[in-house]
Amino acid sequence: MPKWLKDAIFYEIYPQSFYDSNGDGIGDIQGIIQKLDYVKQLGCNAIWLNPVYDSPFKDAGYDVRNYKKVAARYGTNEDLCELIKTVHKKKMRIILDLVPGHTSDTHPWFKQARQAKENKFSNRYIFTKSVWDAPQEYRLMCGLCERDGNYMVNFFSSQPALNYGFADVKYPDWQLPTDHPDCKATVNALKDIMKFWLDMGADGFRVDMADSLVKNDNTKEATAAIWADIRNMLDEEYPDAALVSEWCNPPVAINKGGFHCDFYLDHIGNGYNSLFRGGSWGDKAFFNKNGEGNIRSFTDEFLSYYEAAKGNGYISLITCNHDTPRLTEYLDEEAIKIAYATIFTLPSVPFLYYGDEIGMRYLKGLTSVEGSYSRTGSRSPMQWCKGKNFGFSESDTTYIPVDSDEKAPTVENQRRKKGSIYKVVKDIIKIRKKHPEFSADGEFEILYAEENSFPFVYKRGKYVVLVNPLDRLADVKFEYEIKSELYRIGEYIQSWEKMTLSPQSFAIIEI
Ligand code: NOJ
C-alpha cells in the first residue's frame, strides 16, 4: 500500500477545460503547470489527470489511439514529463487515466484486427466467427470490417472492446478463455503501457471501467484476477504507485482485485446518490434542506463497503466528476458547503472535481462536444477571474462555451467572498491535513444516523462531526464534554445532554 495515499486529497483535472496557455481555446499541459500553485494552495496534494493521449476524441480522449503519446493539442510527452516533475517538486502526486477496456477504432491494433488476413492482432479484440453470427446479448458492430465477423464494443460504437477473454465461454468458436495466450498478450500490452508512464514518474492510475475486462464474468472474479496480477507487478516493481478503480464495488475491486482505492460512484439509487441527487433531481437527497432525505441509504451501504475494505484499501468519495452533473444542479450554496465538509471528513481518499471548489454551475442545454452529451454541462472551462472567458483562454471561441452568466463564481471572487464555498473547502482540507484523525485510515464510528432523521453525527478519533442539512433546527442527544471547537458552519448549542444545531450547519468538536 503506497503510504502517501491515506493522506492524499485529489484534485481532478479535465485537461481540455482547465487552463489554455497557448490561446487555441482548449486547455493544455503547460496550462496545468502554470496553475499547479493554485491546486497546492487549495490544499490538494495529488492530481488525477483525465486522458491526455493521442485520440480522435469521439469520447473526449477515452478512445485512445496511441497509449504512449500525448495528444498534440495538449502538448508533447516532454510536457507531460515536465508536469510530473513539477508536481513532484511541489511535493504533490499525479495519477494518470488508464483506459484498459477498449481503444479507439483508429488504434493501429484495431486496424490490423479488422483485416481479413489473420495476423498478430486478430485476437486483440473480440470478433464473432462470421458477420451472420451476432448474438443479441452482446453489443456488436456488424458488417463494418473486411474481416468476416462482428466486433464487440465496450462503450460507444467507436470503442471496440479489448480481448481479455470470457469467464464463461458460451460460443467456443469465437470466445476465448482468459488463459488463452492471445488474452494474456492483451494483459501484457496493458502492463507495458503502465510501465511506460510509471517509468516516466507517474504515481499511478485511475482505471477507467476497471470491471469491464473479462466478458461473461458475472461474479467479476476473473476480471479481479487480472487486476490482482497487475497489483503484484506494482508491489514488486513500483510499490509507491497507486491504483484507483472506477468500479464502485470495494469488496471485489479492493479485496479481490487489489485496487488501493475504489470510487463510490453516482449510481441511481445507491448510497452515494442518496446524499446529493436522490429522488427526481435531488428532492430526496440527504443534503437537500427539505428534509426528505434518509441518511441510512448512505450509511448502510457505505459502512458495508468500509468494513469490507478496511485494512486493504480505501473508498474514494468524490465531489463530482466529468461524468456527473455538478452539485450546484441540485443543492443551494449552504447545502454544498456542508456536503463538501462531510465528504472531506469521512474516512475516504477524497477527490475534488475542478471548479467544484468555487461552486461552478452545471451548464444545462449545451450541445455535445466530443461525445460528452449530458456531461457537457460539467465540463465547461474553469472560471479563474472576471474578463474574457473568465481568464481560461485568450481565444475567441473555447472548446466548450464558458458560463454565460457574468456573475458566475470565479477563483478571484470566491477568494474574496466571506464564507464562500472556496473558503470552506480550503479550511476543511487544512483541518484534514493537520489532524491525522481525518486521514483515510483514521478511526470512524457513527454516533447518530437514523432512518429519516436528523442530524448525522460521527466520530473520527477524538473529534465529533455534526451535520444538519435541514432548513430548521435539529437536535440530538450529546453527552460529551466539549473540549474545543475545530470548525463550524452555523451554530450549535449544548444544553443538558442535548446538542441543538442551527439550520444548515456543520461542526467539528473535540471531546
Ligand atoms: C468512464 C469515463 O469516466 C467516461 O468519461 C468515459 O466516457 C467512459 N468510461 C468510457 O471510457
Question: Features of this protein?
Answer:
511 residues, binds 1-deoxynojirimycin, eight-stranded parallel sheet, five-stranded antiparallel sheet, alpha/beta, single chain, 16% strand, 20 strands, 25% helix
Q: Layout of helices and strands, plus pairs?
A:
Layout: E1 10-13, H1 29-34, H2 36-42, E2 46-49, E3 53-54, E4 66-70, H3 77-89, E5 93-98, H4 108-113, E6 140-141, E7 151-152, H5 181-200, E8 204-207, H6 221-237, E9 242-245, H7 250-253, E10 261-263, H8 271-276, H9 295-309, E11 314-316, H10 333-345, E12 351-353, H11 411-416, H12 421-434, E13 445-448, E14 456-460, E15 463-468, E16 474-477, E17 484-489, E18 492-495, E19 498-501, E20 505-510
Parallel strand pairs: 1-2, 1-12, 2-5, 5-8, 8-9, 9-10, 10-11
Antiparallel strand pairs: 3-4, 6-7, 13-14, 14-15, 15-20, 16-19, 17-20, 18-19
This protein binds 1-deoxynojirimycin.
1-deoxynojirimycin (NOJ) binds at residues 59, 62, 99, 155, 208-209, 246, 322-323.
Question: Could you give a quick summary of the protein structure above?
Answer:
The protein is α/β, with parallel strands linked by helices.
Low-confidence stretches: none
Structural class: alpha/beta
The number of helical elements comes to: 12
The percent of residues in helical segments reads 10-25%
Biggest sheet strand line-up? 11-10-9-8-5-2-1-12
Number of strands: 20
Query: Can you summarize the main beta sheet?
Result: 8 strands, parallel
Question: Outline, from the CA principal axes?
Answer: globular
Give a list of the ligands.
1-deoxynojirimycin
Distance between the termini: 31 Å
Proportion in β-strands: 15-25%
The residue-averaged pLDDT reads 98
**Rg over alpha carbons:** 23 Å
